[in-house]
Amino acid sequence: MDSESFPPLKASRNDETNEKLTCIGSTAFQCTVLPQHWRSNKSLPTPFKIMTGTTNIENGIKVSVAAGNEDYPSAELRNSTAIVKNGVAKFNDLRFIGRSGRGKMFNLTVTVFTLPPHILIYQKAIKITVDGPRDPRTKNS
C-alpha cells in the first residue's frame, strides 16, 4: 500500500487539554501527535492517547499499538495496550524499544478490539534512534 492512498494527516488542538491531535484511520478517531524523532527505550514526553471521538466505544475495550516499517515489520514496544475509559485510551509510558533504521520512520497500527475491530494506521508516526534527536553534524574543512 503506497503512502499516496491515504490523505495527509491534519493536526488540531484539544480545547480542554491543549494537546495537539491528529486524525488516524478516519475522522472518527484522533490521537495525540507523537514527536518526529525520539530515543529508543525512553518515555515519551506526554502519554500517547487515542480518542474515540464520534464513534461510541464502550468503557473497558482493549486498544493496542504496533509499530513497523519496511525494514523492521514488527518493532518491539513496551506498555503498548490500554483500556478505553470515557472515550480515551491512554498509553502510560509507551516505549519504543526497536529502532526504525537510518532515515526511516515507523508506521503505527492501532487496533481497537470491538466487534468488528477497528484497525487504524498512523503513517510515518515517529523516528526512533539509539541516541534520539541531536544537532546535525557540522563539516570541518
Automatic annotation (TrEMBL):
> Which sequence ranges form a coiled-coil region, renumbered to this chain?
none
InterPro entries on file: AML1_Runt (IPR000040), p53-like_TF_DNA-bd_sf (IPR008967), p53/RUNT-type_TF_DNA-bd_sf (IPR012346), Runt_dom (IPR013524)
Q: Which Gene3D superfamilies match?
A: 2.60.40.720
Q: Which UniProt keywords apply?
A: Nucleus, Transcription, Transcription regulation
**Which PROSITE patterns would you find in this protein's record?**
RUNT
Locations listed in the record = Nucleus
Does Nucleus count among this protein's keywords?
A: yes
Superkingdom field: Eukaryota
Q: Output a single Gene Ontology CC term carried by this record.
A: nucleus
* SUPFAM superfamilies tied to this protein: p53-like transcription factors (SSF49417)
**UniProt keyword annotation of Transcription regulation present:** yes
- Ranges where the Runt domain occurs: 9-138
Q: Name one GO molecular function term.
A: ATP binding
State the protein's name.
Segmentation protein Runt-like
From which source organism is this entry? Octopus sinensis (East Asian common octopus)
